[in-house]
From TrEMBL:
Lineage of source species: Bacteria, Bacillati, Actinomycetota, Actinomycetes, Candidatus Nanopelagicales
Active site: 133 (nucleophile)
Metabolic or biological pathway: Pyrimidine metabolism; UMP biosynthesis via de novo pathway
GO molecular function, one term: dihydroorotate dehydrogenase activity
Record flagged with keyword Cytoplasm: yes
Family annotation (InterPro entries): Aldolase_TIM (IPR013785), DHO_dehydrogenase (IPR050074), DHOD_1B (IPR033888), Dihydroorotate_DH_1 (IPR024920), Dihydroorotate_DH_1_2 (IPR012135), Dihydroorotate_DH_cat (IPR005720), Dihydroorotate_DH_CS (IPR001295), Dihydroorotate_DH_I (IPR049622)
Record gene name: pyrD
Protein name per its UniProtKB record: Dihydroorotate dehydrogenase
Residues involved in FMN binding: 24, 48-49, 130, 170, 196, 222, 249-250, 271-272
Enzyme Commission number(s) from the entry: 1.3.-.-
Compartments, record wording: Cytoplasm
Domain of life of the native organism: Bacteria
Length: 313
């Protein structure tokens, strides 16, 4: 008989009963998924990244299937921070969900403005700062691809939000030296890291012989990017072993989740898999519990970074 596994985890000072979260952008504010399971039964709902004003997103078509994943160029469509705080956040808290609010901006000042509004809200477990957005002040260069801009965003949010709410910096894998950027945002005030965001890609429509997506390029997600996620998490955990990581990228089974945890993730976000199976989070959570028990782990946290152990262990 296998013993029960303590599945709880922490990201900085925030506690969660299980390590399986939604992925930002894939579950909006959780209302669609609530038809299939109680939102309090997963670790947390990571909301779609919200900006200061309502946003329509990029032109259609905005999604494309690929052989082992999907490409999207939604463009951060959303209601804006004021509507989110008035409608979506209270609803999530009524469901007793643990909430990680994701924010995104086009300027460093926009992130600070969002943090100022978040500061007045209660019931939030952590703040994800999605810096994988183009910086309109710097010719569209993505914040997370620019070490200085990354640090300045996190520094501004930290100074605005104060020291209580954990900050999770969401980084892009489309960089040469990810551990260096990770260290920079941690030095600037991030308590944890979200790895990885989608990988930039493109599909050409063979009928029109033009880019298929209205925004031309999009973010590749799904099974194709899992090895990139494992590599990124392993590298960053090796460089910053005490910084918790919210891992994501192509997780569609308990085995996938365990792989990211062994690489160094303390929690796992599930995104693309939910589109094909709305109960994927619950299935993955149950599978992960069984896999941990079968390998003799009494707690999920014992498995975090286990792939880094010495050869003699």
């Amino acid at each position: 008989m296998t013993l029960p596994v303590d599945m709880s985890t922490t990201l900085a000072n925030a506690w969660f009963p299980t390590p399986i979260f939604t992925a930002s952008g894939c579950a909006s504010s959780g209302k669609e998924l609530s038809q299939f399971f109680a939102l309090k039964d997963v670790g947390a709902i990571v909301t779609k990244s919200v900006m200061t004003k309502p946003r329509h997103g990029r032109p259609t078509p905005r999604m494309a299937e690929t052989p082992s994943g999907m490409l999207n160029s939604i463009g951060l469509q959303g209601p804006g921070i004021d509507a989110f705080l008035a409608n979506d956040l209270p609803w999530l808290l009524e469901q007793k969900a643990r909430v990680v609010v994701s924010i995104a901006g086009e300027t460093i000042e926009e992130y600070s403005t969002l943090a100022r509004k978040i500061r007045s809200a209660s019931g939030i477990s952590a703040l994800e700062v999605n810096i994988s957005c183009p910086n309109v002040e710097n010719r569209g260069l993505v914040f997370a691809c620019d070490p200085d801009a990354s640090r300045r965003v996190i520094d501004g949010v930290r100074k605005t939000i104060g020291g209580e709410l954990p900050i999770i910096a969401k980084l892009s894998p489309d960089v040469t030296n990810l551990p260096e950027i990770a260290k920079g945002v941690v030095d600037a005030g991030a308590d944890a890291l979200a790895l990885i965001n989608t990988v930039l890609g493109m599909v050409i429509n063979l009928e029109t012989m033009k880019p298929h997506l209205g925004g031309k390029t999009g973010g590749l997600s799904g099974p194709a990017i899992k090895p990139i996620a494992v590599r990124a998490i392993y590298q960053v955990h090796a460089a910053l072993p005490h910084v918790p990581i919210l891992g994501m990228g192509g997780v569609s089974s308990g085995r996938d989740a365990l792989e990211l945890i062994l690489a160094g993730a303390s929690a796992i976000s599930v995104g693309t898999a939910s589109f094909g199976n709305p109960t994927a989070l619950i299935t993955i959570q149950n599978e992960l519990r069984e896999l941990l028990a079968a390998r003799g782990f009494a707690t999920m946290q014992q498995a975090v970074g286990y792939a880094h152990r010495d050869e003699t262990q």
